[in-house]
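Dear support,

I submitted the protein below through the web form. The confirmation email said the job was done, but the results page showed an empty box. After a refresh the structure appeared. I'm attaching both so you can tell me whether what I see now is the final result or a partial one.
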Amino acid sequence: MISISSNLNVMIKAAEKASKLLIRDFGEVEKLQVSKKGPRDFVTKTDKRVENIIIEELGKTKKNYSFLSEEIGEIKNKDEENIWIIDPIDGTTNFLHGIPHFAICIALQSKKEIVSGLIFDPIKDEMFFGEKNRGAFLNNQRLRVSKKSTLDDCLFSSNHEGLKYSNLNMRCSGCAALDLAYVAAGRLDGFFHNQINLWDIASGSLMVEEAGGKINNFDKFNENGINIRASSDAINKKMLEKLNNF
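What the results page shows now:
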């Protein structure tokens, strides 16, 4: 039986509650794809409603913690050293177009260090989570990064800029959080992206490290302009050499 902290337990419950709305609205989005107006306004409202559910649930038990969220921005409470970092829908464009590849992301930053994180893919019912020095998991299975050591055998992910730059074996999934979760799970071997937001990568970066992978130090970046490099330990040096000028 996996032992988790009270903070992570609250995060899981918040994500599960918010996911019910997300799954329901995703069904509506698929219907709206063929309408003249399209689903954009509907999805914007869903994003905010999911965010509200998560903030409300987290605030019930941790009343003094502060928040940093994609839609609402910063909420500073009495405790500014413990900050919930939230992305209600990472992969919004996928969600908007009826593509079932998106996730709810919640992380806890304590004294400027990410100590807990989860990435929940509600469509596939995959709950990735991790805690500092306690490992990373998919549902109840321990995660480990890939052990491949040859770049030609590896699969990487990035955004469209990364795809244009690199001659590595690449994918562009449109959901950075799940890309990082997949690196932690060994499904992908590496992920790189420039000018990305903290709420997109906070949870996943912790999971990659806890699964035995490598993450660059992004403390020097602003929260909405991070250049991230994440990979298995086995190919980290080789990947960074390929990305030297990216």
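Response: this is the final, complete result; the empty box was a page-load delay. The chain has seven helices and 13 strands.
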